[in-house]
Amino acid sequence: MTPADVIHLLDLLDGRGIRIWLDGGWAVDACLGRQTRRHADLDIVIEQRHLDEVDSMLREMGYGPAPRDDARGWNYALGDEAGHEIDFHAIVLNEAGDGIYGPPENGDVYPAEALSGIGSVDGRAVACITPEWLVRFHSGYELDENDRADVSALCAKFGIPLPPEYQ
Q1: 94 phi and psi, to 5 degrees?
Q2: Which of 10, 63, 66, 120 would disulfide-bridge 58, Cβ 3.0–4.6 Å?
Q3: 3-state secondary structure labels for all residues of the chain
Q4: Could you read off the pLDDT of 102-136 as tens digits, one per residue?
Q5: In this predicted structure, what is the pLDDT of residue 68?
């Protein structure tokens, strides 16, 4: 996914009145204000109420299910033959503005504070997960080279203490 691909999707969704938040590697780069590496996919946080419309739009554009072992109704990916892949993280906003991710009994939440980030992709302002929450969300699993680079860059730029597992 290139910056132009990200902006194209955002423009399509803006035209439909659908807001998304960038997550994952593109959110990191948006917060940093520059692309730091190539991205195989685009992680987006989207309200559940818009999921069917965006899914249908992308399927009309040639996207289909991307192979993965952990697909669920609130977290799955669509890809096209050109190699573009969009990873959906569907939420339901509660009265406090928190994004409930998946079944409420799972307890997975994007806190309202996490959904308040603003970054930029190729000079275009974008909504994204905040740097502090990106650092928090990049823990608790086996870390790879990209995780280490992303978290180190966010911590350095925003004065966030480096989590112990990254030291």
Answers
A1: -95, 180
A2: 63
A3: CCHHHHHHHHHHHHHCCCCEEEEHHHHHHHHHCCCCCCCCCEEEEEEHHHHHHHHHHHHHCCCEECCCCCCECCEEEEECCCCCEEEEEEEEECCCCCEEECCHHHCCEECHHHHHEEEEECCEEEEECCHHHHHHHCCCCCCCHHHHHHHHHHHHHHCCCCCHHHC
A4: 999 999 999 999 999 999 999 999 999 999 999 99
A5: 85
Rounded distance, CA 134 to CA 39, Å? 16
Q: Where are the domains of the chain?
A: 3-166
Report the CATH fold assignment for 3-166: Beta Polymerase; domain 2 (3.30.460)
pTM of the entire predicted model: 0.95
